[in-house]
Amino acid sequence: MRNVLQTWTSAQVRAAEEPLLAAGVPLMGRAAFALHVWVADALRDRRGTLTGARVVVLVGPGNNGGDALHAGALLARRGVEVHAVLTADRVHQGGLTALRAAGGRVLRLERLEDAAALAVGADLVLDGVLGIGSDGSGLRGAAGALVEAIVQRGRPYVVAVDVPSGLGVDDGRREGVVLDADLTVSFGTLKPGLVLPPGARAAGRVEHVDLGLEPAGAPAVVRLEAADVADLWPVPAPDAHKYTRGVVGVVAGSRAYAGAAVLTTSGAVRAGVGMVRYLGDVADLVVAAHPEVVVGHGRVQAWVFGPGVSPDDAGQRRRIEYAVQHVRERGEPAVVDAGALDLLPPHVGPHAVITPHAGELARLLGQRGEAVDRADVEAEPLRWARRAHELTGATVLLKGSVTVVVGARGAVYAQADAPPWLATAGAGDVLAGLLGALLAGRAQAVQEDPSLAAALAAAAALVHGRAAHRANPGGPVAAQAVADALPGTIAELLGA
């Protein structure tokens, strides 16, 4: 994969900065210059000119405050009215001196309401309160009170320095007070909290400034880009036949939830797998919708089981147990969704991908002794997805507005490709079928390298989200429309 968006932890960033700082590389100067350029562009977009614009800089005690002060000095020299509000007793003295020399004004945080009113009335607020040391517990003390006062008055346009202050840099956690940004300018490397939920929503648009850092070790969190799909997708060779292209077995649906079977097989068929083999009680409806689907037992290279299945459905339970036996004994990859999550064995390998939403993951973890509810999972999705991987051995695809995937060898992906309209009944069934097709097409490779399952799961989330956009750009979308948009979406991604 050549185009992935990579993020690195605060510890990795600090370690990468040390040799450059020791060699005298002016990292702060470079960061401040780039930051002032982005702020200047934002001001021009918002008001057409820099002259007479007002920027309020919120300054904390660390290097982010220094970056913000130096950027403020550069803006002041270009005709911007810059006010720095100091939220700590100790701030970067070099930046403070530079700002004053450029004509910037400095206020200590003594009259909270006055400072909040100044910020709300500004054309732009530059958030330099906290940096990469933030653990996600939110802003406290005077800085927290100031941000609360600002938000209560009406949040201004905010540019965050590196990360929104108070956000969990390494995990996206947000508790307490966080000043949400419209634009985040991240230096050196992108940080995991900018792409992970729930923090990703606080970051706004994210821009990266390369400072020449070379972090050691694997990236903490990866996001696939459109061009990465071609590296992962099982494109048929000229001499391909249906068995070399993959056969996916689907155990889904019931008379009560027949649509789940139709949608799951739709996702698999439209994704271009060699064959879909259906086992279940609504074969008549599945074949009526997709006459190419084959009904009954036979050769299978990957499985999808669980959509639209109740764990107390005796017939489907037997079929799922049959499929699980193949997954455990033959190493056949699988997608374990919805009703099958309650039937998951105590331990499986990463070639099995579980696809819960937050509530389902909380229930699965509870069955394994963890005291966790849906709200806990939504507050710290990476933590609990990792815990589920540890407890089950499976690759975990946690569905949400940002889909988090955790797999073997520390692989973590965060995909944010879908529109909010995709939060609709049946969308998960289409995703399950789509992912099953991918696993079937790459079954041998997944058996050889189980960590590949996580990358394929992330690719499926990307394609699924793109198909939703294609089905009806900017508006409501139904699950079947997403399935119908898969062939064109895949062709476009492979062509790109």
Question: How would you describe this structure in keywords?
Answer:
496 residues, alpha/beta, Rossmann fold, 2 domains, seven-stranded parallel β-sheet, 18 strands
Characterise the protein shown here.
Its cofactor is Mg(2+); K(+). Its EC number is 4.2.1.136, 5.1.99.6. K(+) binds at residues 64, 127, 165. Pfam families: Carb_kinase, YjeF_N. Keywords: ATP-binding, Isomerase, Lyase, Metal-binding, Multifunctional enzyme, NAD, NADP, Nucleotide-binding, Potassium. With 496 residues, the chain is an alpha/beta fold. The chain has 2 domains: 5-219, YjeF N-terminal domain (Rossmann fold), CATH 3.40.50; 226-495, UDP-N-acetylmuramoyl-L-alanine:D-glutamate ligase. Helices cover 43% and strands 15% of the residues. It contains 19 helices and 18 strands. The protein has helices at residues 10-22, 27-47, 63-76, 93-101, 112-120, 141-153, 200-203, 229-232, 242-245, 258-270, 283-289, 314-330, 358-367, 374-379, 381-392, 427-441, 443-448, 452-471, 479-495; strands at residues 5-7, 54-59, 81-86, 105-108, 124-128, 158-161, 183-187, 205-209, 221-223, 247-251, 275-279, 294-295, 302-305, 334-336, 352-354, 395-398, 403-406, 412-415. The strands form 3 sheets. Strands 12-11-10-13-14-15-16-17-18 form a 9-stranded mixed sheet, sandwiched between helices. The protein is elongated. The mean pLDDT is 94.
List the helices and strands and how they pair.
Layout: E1 5-7, H1 10-22, H2 27-47, E2 54-59, H3 63-76, E3 81-86, H4 93-101, E4 105-108, H5 112-120, E5 124-128, H6 141-153, E6 158-161, E7 183-187, H7 200-203, E8 205-209, E9 221-223, H8 229-232, H9 242-245, E10 247-251, H10 258-270, E11 275-279, H11 283-289, E12 294-295, E13 302-305, H12 314-330, E14 334-336, E15 352-354, H13 358-367, H14 374-379, H15 381-392, E16 395-398, E17 403-406, E18 412-415, H16 427-441, H17 443-448, H18 452-471, H19 479-495
Parallel strand pairs: 2-3, 2-5, 3-4, 5-6, 6-7, 7-8, 10-11, 10-13, 11-12, 13-14, 14-15, 15-16
Antiparallel strand pairs: 1-9, 16-17, 17-18
Helix pairs in contact: 2-3, 3-4, 5-6, 10-11, 10-16, 10-19, 13-15, 16-18, 16-19, 18-19
